[in-house]
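Person: I keep going back and forth on a fold encoding question. Show me how you would write down a chain together with its backbone fold. Please set it down just below, with no commentary around it:
Helper:
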Amino acid sequence: MPVDYLSPRYWPTWLALALARMLTHLPWRWQLAIGRTLGRIMYRLARRRRHIARINLQLCLPAQTEAERRQLLRKHFEALGMGALETAMSWWMPDHRLEPLCRIEGLENLQHALAQGRGVILLTAHFTTLEIGGRLLAMHAPFHVLFREHKNRLFHAVMRNAREINYEKAIPRGDMRAMLRSLRDNHPVWYAPDQNYGREHSIFVPFFGVPAATITATARIAQLSNAPVVPLFQALRSDGRGYLIRLDPALRHFPGSDIEAATRRVNGIIEDLIRRAPAQYLWTHRRFKTRPPGESSVYD
Protein backbone atom coordinates (compact mmCIF):
# COMPACT_ATOMS: atom_id res chain seq x y z
CA MET A 1 0.00 0.00 0.00
CA PRO A 2 1.47 3.40 -1.02
CA VAL A 3 2.59 5.66 1.82
CA ASP A 4 1.26 9.21 1.92
CA TYR A 5 4.43 11.03 2.92
CA LEU A 6 2.55 14.35 2.85
CA SER A 7 0.23 13.22 5.62
CA PRO A 8 0.26 15.51 8.69
CA ARG A 9 1.71 12.63 10.74
CA TYR A 10 4.98 13.07 8.79
CA TRP A 11 5.20 16.87 9.04
CA PRO A 12 7.44 16.78 12.17
CA THR A 13 9.74 14.32 10.38
CA TRP A 14 9.92 16.57 7.31
CA LEU A 15 10.76 19.52 9.56
CA ALA A 16 13.48 17.59 11.40
CA LEU A 17 15.01 16.33 8.15
CA ALA A 18 14.96 19.79 6.59
CA LEU A 19 16.64 21.29 9.66
CA ALA A 20 19.24 18.53 9.73
CA ARG A 21 20.04 19.06 6.06
CA MET A 22 20.40 22.80 6.53
CA LEU A 23 22.82 22.26 9.40
CA THR A 24 25.14 20.26 7.13
CA HIS A 25 26.04 23.56 5.42
CA LEU A 26 27.63 24.83 8.63
CA PRO A 27 31.32 24.27 9.41
CA TRP A 28 32.00 20.79 10.78
CA ARG A 29 33.02 22.00 14.24
CA TRP A 30 29.83 24.04 14.51
CA GLN A 31 27.78 20.98 13.67
CA LEU A 32 29.51 18.95 16.38
CA ALA A 33 28.98 21.74 18.90
CA ILE A 34 25.26 21.75 18.08
CA GLY A 35 25.17 17.97 18.34
CA ARG A 36 26.93 18.04 21.69
CA THR A 37 24.36 20.52 22.99
CA LEU A 38 21.55 18.34 21.64
CA GLY A 39 23.06 15.40 23.52
CA ARG A 40 23.09 17.33 26.79
CA ILE A 41 19.41 18.10 26.31
CA MET A 42 18.74 14.42 25.58
CA TYR A 43 20.55 13.50 28.79
CA ARG A 44 18.06 15.61 30.75
CA LEU A 45 14.91 14.52 28.90
CA ALA A 46 15.48 10.87 27.90
CA ARG A 47 15.17 9.37 31.36
CA ARG A 48 14.41 5.83 30.25
CA ARG A 49 17.38 5.70 27.86
CA ARG A 50 19.59 7.29 30.50
CA HIS A 51 18.52 4.56 32.93
CA ILE A 52 19.29 1.80 30.39
CA ALA A 53 22.72 3.23 29.64
CA ARG A 54 23.50 3.58 33.33
CA ILE A 55 22.63 -0.08 33.97
CA ASN A 56 24.71 -1.20 31.00
CA LEU A 57 27.72 0.75 32.23
CA GLN A 58 27.34 -0.69 35.73
CA LEU A 59 27.23 -4.21 34.34
CA CYS A 60 29.98 -3.86 31.75
CA LEU A 61 32.42 -1.55 33.51
CA PRO A 62 32.22 -2.52 37.21
CA ALA A 63 35.87 -1.59 37.81
CA GLN A 64 35.11 2.08 37.22
CA THR A 65 33.95 4.26 40.08
CA GLU A 66 30.44 5.65 40.15
CA ALA A 67 31.83 9.11 39.37
CA GLU A 68 33.76 7.77 36.37
CA ARG A 69 30.67 6.02 35.01
CA ARG A 70 28.57 9.15 35.52
CA GLN A 71 31.07 11.20 33.53
CA LEU A 72 31.16 8.53 30.82
CA LEU A 73 27.36 8.53 30.69
CA ARG A 74 27.31 12.29 30.06
CA LYS A 75 29.97 11.95 27.38
CA HIS A 76 27.94 9.17 25.80
CA PHE A 77 24.86 11.36 25.46
CA GLU A 78 26.98 14.09 23.90
CA ALA A 79 28.18 11.46 21.41
CA LEU A 80 24.55 10.48 20.73
CA GLY A 81 23.70 14.08 19.94
CA MET A 82 26.72 14.42 17.69
CA GLY A 83 25.73 11.12 16.07
CA ALA A 84 22.44 12.66 14.97
CA LEU A 85 24.30 15.46 13.20
CA GLU A 86 26.90 13.01 11.87
CA THR A 87 24.09 10.99 10.31
CA ALA A 88 22.96 14.08 8.41
CA MET A 89 26.57 14.72 7.35
CA SER A 90 26.87 11.16 6.04
CA TRP A 91 23.67 11.51 4.02
CA TRP A 92 24.12 14.95 2.50
CA MET A 93 27.64 16.39 2.83
CA PRO A 94 29.69 16.18 -0.39
CA ASP A 95 32.87 14.13 -0.57
CA HIS A 96 35.20 17.13 -0.81
CA ARG A 97 34.07 18.35 2.64
CA LEU A 98 34.22 14.91 4.26
CA GLU A 99 37.55 13.73 2.83
CA PRO A 100 39.75 16.02 5.01
CA LEU A 101 38.03 14.63 8.13
CA CYS A 102 39.04 11.01 7.48
CA ARG A 103 42.14 9.21 8.67
CA ILE A 104 42.05 5.59 7.57
CA GLU A 105 44.43 2.93 8.86
CA GLY A 106 44.83 -0.71 7.86
CA LEU A 107 43.24 -0.43 4.42
CA GLU A 108 45.83 -2.95 3.26
CA ASN A 109 44.26 -5.50 5.64
CA LEU A 110 40.97 -5.26 3.75
CA GLN A 111 42.70 -5.37 0.37
CA HIS A 112 44.70 -8.45 1.38
CA ALA A 113 41.54 -10.21 2.57
CA LEU A 114 39.68 -9.36 -0.65
CA ALA A 115 42.54 -10.79 -2.69
CA GLN A 116 41.39 -14.23 -1.51
CA GLY A 117 38.27 -13.79 -3.68
CA ARG A 118 35.67 -14.79 -1.07
CA GLY A 119 34.40 -11.39 0.05
CA VAL A 120 34.99 -9.97 3.52
CA ILE A 121 32.81 -9.76 6.62
CA LEU A 122 33.48 -6.33 8.14
CA LEU A 123 32.94 -7.11 11.82
CA THR A 124 31.97 -4.02 13.78
CA ALA A 125 29.60 -2.73 16.46
CA HIS A 126 26.89 -0.11 16.87
CA PHE A 127 28.82 3.07 17.60
CA THR A 128 27.32 6.56 17.55
CA THR A 129 29.65 7.19 14.59
CA LEU A 130 28.16 4.29 12.64
CA GLU A 131 26.72 6.36 9.78
CA ILE A 132 29.60 8.79 9.32
CA GLY A 133 32.15 6.00 9.65
CA GLY A 134 30.43 3.98 6.96
CA ARG A 135 30.30 6.92 4.58
CA LEU A 136 33.99 7.70 5.08
CA LEU A 137 35.06 4.09 4.56
CA ALA A 138 32.89 3.79 1.44
CA MET A 139 34.84 6.69 -0.09
CA HIS A 140 38.01 4.57 0.10
CA ALA A 141 36.68 1.01 -0.17
CA PRO A 142 33.16 0.36 -1.53
CA PHE A 143 31.19 -2.20 0.45
CA HIS A 144 27.67 -3.53 1.00
CA VAL A 145 25.74 -2.56 4.10
CA LEU A 146 22.95 -4.25 6.05
CA PHE A 147 20.02 -2.20 7.31
CA ARG A 148 16.84 -2.79 9.23
CA GLU A 149 13.52 -1.09 8.61
CA HIS A 150 12.72 1.97 10.69
CA LYS A 151 9.23 2.34 12.14
CA ASN A 152 8.92 5.84 10.69
CA ARG A 153 8.32 5.09 7.01
CA LEU A 154 9.45 8.54 5.82
CA PHE A 155 12.68 8.40 7.80
CA HIS A 156 13.26 4.87 6.52
CA ALA A 157 12.75 5.93 2.90
CA VAL A 158 15.23 8.80 3.24
CA MET A 159 17.74 6.59 5.06
CA ARG A 160 17.49 3.82 2.48
CA ASN A 161 17.85 6.27 -0.40
CA ALA A 162 20.99 7.73 1.17
CA ARG A 163 22.50 4.30 1.73
CA GLU A 164 21.75 3.18 -1.81
CA ILE A 165 23.52 6.30 -3.09
CA ASN A 166 26.54 6.09 -0.77
CA TYR A 167 27.08 2.32 -0.79
CA GLU A 168 27.31 -0.25 -3.55
CA LYS A 169 24.32 -2.14 -2.16
CA ALA A 170 21.94 -1.96 0.82
CA ILE A 171 20.78 -5.36 2.09
CA PRO A 172 17.78 -5.88 4.43
CA ARG A 173 19.09 -7.25 7.74
CA GLY A 174 17.22 -10.55 7.54
CA ASP A 175 18.22 -11.36 3.96
CA MET A 176 21.14 -13.70 4.61
CA ARG A 177 20.93 -15.10 1.07
CA ALA A 178 21.66 -11.64 -0.34
CA MET A 179 24.54 -11.25 2.08
CA LEU A 180 26.01 -14.60 1.02
CA ARG A 181 25.63 -13.60 -2.65
CA SER A 182 27.55 -10.40 -1.98
CA LEU A 183 30.34 -12.35 -0.30
CA ARG A 184 30.39 -14.89 -3.13
CA ASP A 185 30.80 -11.99 -5.57
CA ASN A 186 33.83 -10.83 -3.52
CA HIS A 187 32.28 -7.75 -1.90
CA PRO A 188 32.94 -6.62 1.66
CA VAL A 189 29.78 -6.65 3.79
CA TRP A 190 29.33 -4.55 6.93
CA TYR A 191 28.05 -6.65 9.84
CA ALA A 192 27.38 -5.73 13.49
CA PRO A 193 26.12 -8.66 15.64
CA ASP A 194 26.33 -6.82 18.99
CA GLN A 195 22.65 -6.13 19.65
CA ASN A 196 19.97 -8.24 21.35
CA TYR A 197 17.93 -10.08 18.70
CA GLY A 198 16.03 -12.37 21.08
CA ARG A 199 16.44 -16.06 21.80
CA GLU A 200 16.04 -17.36 18.26
CA HIS A 201 19.43 -18.20 16.71
CA SER A 202 21.14 -16.88 19.87
CA ILE A 203 23.22 -18.44 22.60
CA PHE A 204 24.28 -17.00 25.94
CA VAL A 205 27.95 -16.06 25.96
CA PRO A 206 29.75 -13.39 28.00
CA PHE A 207 29.70 -9.76 26.94
CA PHE A 208 31.94 -7.83 29.32
CA GLY A 209 31.55 -10.83 31.64
CA VAL A 210 27.73 -10.73 31.61
CA PRO A 211 25.73 -13.55 29.93
CA ALA A 212 24.23 -12.01 26.80
CA ALA A 213 21.97 -13.49 24.12
CA THR A 214 24.27 -13.36 21.10
CA ILE A 215 23.48 -14.44 17.55
CA THR A 216 25.77 -17.09 16.11
CA ALA A 217 25.37 -15.75 12.58
CA THR A 218 28.90 -14.31 12.31
CA ALA A 219 30.47 -17.73 12.73
CA ARG A 220 27.86 -19.51 10.62
CA ILE A 221 28.13 -17.06 7.73
CA ALA A 222 31.91 -17.34 7.85
CA GLN A 223 31.56 -21.13 7.73
CA LEU A 224 29.16 -21.07 4.77
CA SER A 225 31.06 -18.48 2.74
CA ASN A 226 34.62 -19.11 3.89
CA ALA A 227 34.93 -15.31 3.87
CA PRO A 228 37.65 -13.74 6.03
CA VAL A 229 36.50 -11.58 8.94
CA VAL A 230 38.10 -8.13 9.28
CA PRO A 231 37.35 -6.12 12.46
CA LEU A 232 36.32 -2.54 11.70
CA PHE A 233 36.58 0.36 14.13
CA GLN A 234 35.36 3.92 13.60
CA ALA A 235 35.38 6.83 16.02
CA LEU A 236 35.61 10.58 16.42
CA ARG A 237 39.29 11.18 17.07
CA SER A 238 40.31 12.27 20.57
CA ASP A 239 42.30 15.20 19.11
CA GLY A 240 39.10 16.60 17.59
CA ARG A 241 40.52 16.68 14.06
CA GLY A 242 38.15 14.28 12.38
CA TYR A 243 37.45 10.56 12.37
CA LEU A 244 39.59 7.45 12.56
CA ILE A 245 38.67 4.40 10.50
CA ARG A 246 40.74 1.37 11.47
CA LEU A 247 40.70 -2.01 9.71
CA ASP A 248 42.46 -4.71 11.72
CA PRO A 249 44.06 -7.82 10.21
CA ALA A 250 41.66 -10.63 9.28
CA LEU A 251 40.97 -13.11 12.07
CA ARG A 252 43.10 -16.22 11.95
CA HIS A 253 41.61 -19.70 12.30
CA PHE A 254 38.04 -18.36 12.42
CA PRO A 255 35.44 -19.68 12.93
CA GLY A 256 36.71 -23.21 13.48
CA SER A 257 34.37 -26.08 14.33
CA ASP A 258 33.09 -24.78 17.69
CA ILE A 259 30.31 -22.23 17.05
CA GLU A 260 30.01 -21.27 20.72
CA ALA A 261 33.74 -20.63 21.04
CA ALA A 262 33.68 -18.56 17.83
CA THR A 263 30.74 -16.51 19.15
CA ARG A 264 32.61 -15.89 22.41
CA ARG A 265 35.53 -14.71 20.34
CA VAL A 266 33.32 -12.30 18.40
CA ASN A 267 32.05 -10.74 21.63
CA GLY A 268 35.62 -10.41 22.86
CA ILE A 269 36.62 -8.59 19.68
CA ILE A 270 33.66 -6.24 20.00
CA GLU A 271 34.63 -5.55 23.62
CA ASP A 272 38.11 -4.57 22.43
CA LEU A 273 36.61 -2.19 19.84
CA ILE A 274 34.40 -0.58 22.49
CA ARG A 275 37.31 -0.04 24.88
CA ARG A 276 39.00 2.10 22.24
CA ALA A 277 36.18 4.70 22.45
CA PRO A 278 33.74 3.69 25.21
CA ALA A 279 31.73 6.93 25.19
CA GLN A 280 30.88 6.39 21.52
CA TYR A 281 29.32 2.94 21.92
CA LEU A 282 25.51 2.66 21.87
CA TRP A 283 24.95 2.04 25.58
CA THR A 284 21.27 3.04 25.34
CA HIS A 285 20.44 -0.28 23.64
CA ARG A 286 18.97 -2.98 25.93
CA ARG A 287 21.79 -5.42 25.25
CA PHE A 288 20.78 -7.65 28.17
CA LYS A 289 17.02 -7.58 27.58
CA THR A 290 16.88 -11.35 26.96
CA ARG A 291 17.96 -13.13 30.12
CA PRO A 292 18.98 -16.73 30.78
CA PRO A 293 16.14 -18.94 32.10
CA GLY A 294 15.19 -18.01 35.63
CA GLU A 295 16.89 -14.60 35.64
CA SER A 296 14.85 -11.42 35.98
CA SER A 297 15.17 -8.23 33.93
CA VAL A 298 18.15 -6.04 34.72
CA TYR A 299 16.38 -2.88 33.51
CA ASP A 300 13.36 -2.80 35.84
Observations:
- The beta strands are 102-105, 120-123, 144-147, 169-172, 188-191, 202-207, 210-215, 229-236, 243-247.
